Amino acid sequence: MTKHLLPLISLGTLLFASLDSWAAPDANSLNIQYHPGKTATDYGMCNGIPERIPGLLGAGIKPSDLERGVRCLVADFDGNGSPDFAIFSVPEVYHGGQVIVMITKAKGRQLLRSVIMSHSFYNAPNIYESKSRKEHSKHFEMQRKFGCPQLKLDGIVQWGEGGTTKVFRYDPKRGDFVKAGECRSESS
To answer: The pTM is what?
Structure first.
């Protein structure tokens, strides 16, 4: 992005201000704040301006929910270095609800795509860490032991909890999440 500087005169001092900070927000600007959980296993919360996120109602999230804050996951699902946000309504998820994922750029400030995952979740989704982060993950050995797929980028997982664990990855060509594979759970 090229920044254009605008000279300003203030009390005899020449100042420069960036024009891009004065520009009106475009239709794809995104204002989501992420608040991490208290521990590594706690879900974070996201809140923001809902009218800029297409598909919220399709994922069972009312605009007032997002304004107050909803459960969310943050990872880089498309590999562009910007945080992507997966938000969901806990009551909806436990009844076969859906997850909406916002794929972003510009350090999470610009929405590239809003995706409602076609999979119906029956328990809360989680981040499925990519191979590049696996060596630091306490789940890595468990994932290998139970035949879980190894992903190049972060994905989303529905842990089996006695059944089949399902792993999803973002496919940029389709603009959607696809099933990357399944594996057995610890108690299956």
So the answer is: 0.77
